[in-house]
Amino acid sequence: MLMVSEKNPQGKNPGSFPYQISDSYPEAKASYHISAGHWRVSYSNHVDAMAVRALLSQVPIHDTDSILWGNCKACKLSISEIQNTIRTPSVRPGWYNVVWPKTLVPKFSCLLWLVMKQRLLTRDRMRRFHMHVPQHCVLCVSGTESHAHLFSECPYTLFVLQHSPCPITRSWMEFSLGNVTAQTARTLAVSHIRYQVGRDSSFDFWHDPWVNNKPLLAQFPRGIISILDSYPEAKASYHISAGHWRVSYSNHVDAMAVRALLSQVPIHDTDSILWGNCKACKLSISEIQNTIRTPSVRPGWYNVVWPKTLVPKFSCLLWLVMKQRLLTRDRMRRFHMHVPQHCVLCVSGTESHAHLFSECPYTLFVLQHSPCPITRSWMEFSLGNVTAQTVSNTEKQITYLFIAAACHAIWKERNARVHHNAHAISAHVLANLVKRNVREKLLTCTALLRSIRLDPRLEATVLH
């Protein structure tokens, strides 16, 4: 709408624009001054009329009225777009991509967010709130529990973090800034990336690391651009002609060095980015991980814990046994928990991983029902040498399954007696329960079952 002053409709107020000059009226619509797709206003030589005509000449006339927000039509406008336009943009913290990656698991990322914000109720914060709690870390029992200690300094934490595919910083300052991986990891990854230049290459000639994994500008002074008759945004294809490199024939020492480098770079039909000898389009994360990570040696008990015939809940429990991470009473007492130290199964020895799974008479009675003799030495057991080397592969698979089922049943019986005062199950009954679990699993393994039926002794021991 054309706006005019309403104080003096006759235009007698010297500070207002009189309606007579524009041949308009206060309630006029914009369409009143449009004719045949052009603006129609008075051709008065009044200075204000000329100013209005100059303004209108800059306003294009469209088919329909539209109210726009930026470059977006109002009919497609969203609240989020308005908010992103008018709000003051906040700077994302350095750890944003660490906490909220594309592969996030919500509960993990939310906890890590609290770690980065230092909002977990660690013992140092509890003491600042005048809460009477010990200050030592319960994981290592040596340092003072804080965010910095718990997540970057504690030996327990450091042991876990060292299994990461890429080295992780031990500095809490770097960690809290989001610099969690060492720069050597990026350097290591770049060393495996190779560029193949195509005839119509879209690689930046000066800025992409397609020569020796470094940009040319990182290898030569910036003046080399003008020496080679190039420009900063040049693509590699700019310097390719008829399948050959085309650069200036300057005798400058840097130009000669560039020509020597380019002579070692073959030109292919198309651009390709390679990882080792594998094209990026066929590249998998597992292949990258297997290339850059330090390969770990499998422990001797790996095949005992994870056999072909595994039952997940049995194998997970046996894994904790081998890692000695179950909360046995000897560990509880090391954590300053006031509990008896005797074994609840035999009421004679001190409860520990070694006693509970290789020395306790209750356990030994159960394990003697195994198809093959099992070692009684905890040292041999924890190294994975649980049976004699002369037994067949089929017997080993069955024995590994029996051990996992037995450890699961023994730990379950131990917990029932400790936490629920449950009626004690005799070792004979528990052994029969373990044998039944093994038999039920074997009946689902067709190939192994076929091997068992070929051995009458083994069939009589396992399936009956």
TrEMBL record:
Domain called Reverse transcriptase zinc-binding: residue spans: 84-159, 290-365
One of the Pfam families matching this protein, by short name: zf-RVT
Superkingdom, taxonomy of origin: Eukaryota
Name of the featured protein: Reverse transcriptase zinc-binding domain-containing protein
The organism of origin for this protein: Heracleum sosnowskyi
Lineage: Eukaryota, Viridiplantae, Streptophyta, Embryophyta, Tracheophyta
